[in-house]
């Protein structure tokens, strides 16, 4: 038997096994496979997104705190000038 015959036999067996499998089992297998995959950012860029996130998190939190402080000052300023 040649290699192409073996390949055709293998593909046919796999196809028949897939078709005979109940639909619910196929869905579960697909869901499990999807669940095990890591997000596309990590597959494409490795740990770079994590590093950038760790680097920018303190900056974002600082900006939020500053915005809250400025918001309180703006409220005080409005109250002074509205009177």
Outline the structure in words.
The chain is mainly alpha-helical and 83 residues long. It has 4 helices and no strands. 0% of the residues are buried.
The assigned structural class equals mainly alpha
Proportion in β-strands: under 5%
Largest sheet: none
Radius of gyration: 29 Å
* General form: elongated
What is the N-to-C succession of helices and strands? Answer: HHHH
Percent of residues in helices comes to: over 70%
Number of strands: 0
- In DSSP terms (H or I, runs of 4 or more residues), the helix count works out at 4
Mean pLDDT: 82
Please sum up the structure shown:
With 83 residues, this protein is mainly alpha-helical. The protein contains four helices and no strands.
Secondary structure layout:
Layout: H1 3-20, H2 23-36, H3 40-45, H4 48-82
State the main characteristics.
4 helices, mainly alpha, 83 residues, elongated, 0% strand
């Amino acid at each position: 038997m040649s290699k192409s015959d073996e390949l055709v036999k293998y593909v046919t067996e796999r196809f028949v096994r897939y078709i005979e499998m109940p639909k619910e089992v196929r869905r579960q297998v697909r869901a499990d496979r999807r669940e095990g995959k890591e997000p596309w950012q990590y597959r494409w860029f490795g740990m770079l997104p994590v590093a950038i996130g760790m680097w920018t998190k303190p900056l974002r939190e600082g900006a939020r705190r500053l915005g809250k402080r400025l918001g309180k000052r703006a409220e005080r300023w409005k109250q002074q000038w509205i009177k």
